[in-house]
């Protein structure tokens, strides 16, 4: 028997799988990668050797209003490691500059004060002299226009970012299920963009594109809009990191928002690429907290399972979802319509200027459900999970038993993906 231990919320869950049933365990190389320096040193080295730009302290000279875009509570960006060093660099170039940390919530709910304390720590959040602001994508009065996206949508972003003397961003790079990779240009769009802009960028036509997939940038229409938005916002400098299973920095890339990001993406692709091992049962996770706080985010880990699940096979998604479904319209899409074919047809018939909130996540979940039953091992209420056309299981062992019943046999091979958001599954 093999004991499989998987991240779940802030803890782990386990199940035993017979040796003869375990087809493969698909892991990112990030979990075994051993960096040559500690977290602080890696970030410092990146800042001292920026890619495609002068050092941040040089860029900061003569600047008075500096904005640092920072990822929100749903992203495991180690801000306690990155942000103090960004601040030191800025103050080395402009000691009197006002520095505002703009929390990039994108289309998510606002980050709470408690979540910011947890993310930044008391010293940084309360005593550093930094100003903190939370982006609200639906607050029209906070937005300014920067023109039109290549896709034709309006480009509206937070005026704090648009009016800054110097715009900087922190973030992390991991595979992303429709933007190719996280990080870089995503700090602006969707990070600090208006809901109007996000809806246009995340339209059904783009989500349906074969290039809007994990690990793909070239030809990706969503990425193209994001690059344009970052250019128009004058995003001058980024510091993006790569993290391991413990959410610790194993590599850092700083400099030009596209050149440094591309270098980081190449590193992640080399580490994270795994060959698909098709199986009738595939178990995946969202890597634990904070990415498995809701069903909405959990769709990401499901796409890794989708890429290696045999036709008609069952996906088991292990995700705590302590915050419930994560989006009312996302939930309502499934709760109000039992026919997945009708749901998908409705998405594909929706023009880009009529995209509804969370449509993209629902569209991808629907794509998966049209091919595979999904079993959720989760804290989310059973009735919520079932209303969204999925099965509920109280633990991993029960989920495997249920998958066996759905398949009509008790010996189907199982492929396990311990962290579905950290891998690029290549067919």
TrEMBL record:
Residues 8-214 form the LarA-like N-terminal domain. Residues 274-425 form the Lactate racemase C-terminal domain. Coiled coil: none annotated. It comes from the Bacteria. InterPro entries: LarA-like (IPR048068), LarA-like_C (IPR043166), LarA-like_N (IPR018657), LarA_C (IPR048520), Ni_dep_LarA (IPR047926). PANTHER family: LAR_N DOMAIN-CONTAINING PROTEIN (PTHR33171), LARA-LIKE N-TERMINAL DOMAIN-CONTAINING PROTEIN (PTHR33171:SF17). NCBIfam families: Ni_dep_LarA (NF033504). This is Nickel-dependent lactate racemase. The lineage of its organism: Bacteria, Bacillati, Bacillota, Clostridia, Eubacteriales. The gene is larA.
């Amino acid at each position: 028997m093999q004991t499989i231990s998987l991240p779940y919320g802030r803890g782990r869950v386990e199940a035993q799988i017979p040796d003869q049933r375990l087809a493969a365990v698909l892991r990112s190389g990030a979990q075994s990668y051993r960096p040559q320096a500690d977290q602080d040193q890696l970030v410092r080295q990146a800042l001292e050797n920026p890619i495609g730009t002068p050092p941040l302290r040089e860029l900061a000279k003569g600047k008075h209003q500096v904005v640092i875009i920072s990822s929100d509570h749903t992203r495991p960006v180690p801000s306690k490691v990155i942000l103090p060093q960004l601040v030191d660099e800025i103050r080395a170039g402009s000691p009197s500059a006002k520095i505002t940390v703009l929390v990039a919530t994108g289309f998510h709910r606002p980050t709470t004060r408690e979540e910011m304390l947890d993310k930044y720590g008391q010293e940084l959040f309360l005593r550093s002299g930094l100003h903190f602001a939370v982006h609200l994508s639906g607050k029209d009065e906070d937005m300014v226009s920067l023109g039109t996206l290549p896709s034709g949508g309006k480009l509206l972003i937070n005026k704090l970012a648009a009016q800054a003397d110097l715009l900087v961003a922190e973030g992390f790079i991991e595979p992303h299920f429709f933007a190719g990779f996280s990080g870089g240009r995503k700090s602006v769009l969707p990070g600090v963009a208006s809901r109007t802009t996000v809806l246009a960028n995340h339209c059904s036509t783009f989500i349906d594109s074969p290039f809007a997939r994990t690990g793909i940038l070239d030809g990706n229409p969503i990425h193209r809009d994001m690059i344009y938005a970052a250019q128009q916002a004058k995003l001058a400098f980024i510091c993006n990191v790569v993290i391991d299973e413990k959410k610790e920095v194993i590599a850092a890339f700083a400099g030009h928002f596209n050149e440094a990001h591309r270098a980081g993406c190449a590193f992640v692709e080399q580490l994270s690429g795994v060959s698909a091992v098709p199986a009738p049962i595939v178990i995946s996770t969202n890597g634990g907290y904070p990415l498995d706080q809701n069903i909405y985010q959990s769709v990401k880990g499901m796409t890794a399972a989708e890429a290696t699940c045999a036709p008609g096979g069952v996906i088991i998604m292990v995700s705590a979802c302590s915050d419930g479904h994560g989006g009312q319209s996302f939930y309502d899409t499934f709760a109000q319509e039992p026919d997945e074919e009708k749901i998908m047809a409705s998405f594909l018939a929706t023009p880009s200027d009529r995209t509804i909130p969370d449509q993209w996540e629902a569209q991808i979940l629907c794509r998966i459900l049209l091919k595979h039953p999904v079993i959720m091992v989760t804290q989310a209420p059973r009735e919520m999970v079932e209303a969204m056309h999925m099965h509920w299981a109280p633990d991993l062992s029960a989920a495997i038993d249920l998958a066996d019943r759905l398949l009509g046999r008790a010996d189907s091979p199982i492929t396990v993906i311990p962290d579905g958001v950290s891998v690029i599954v290549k067919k």
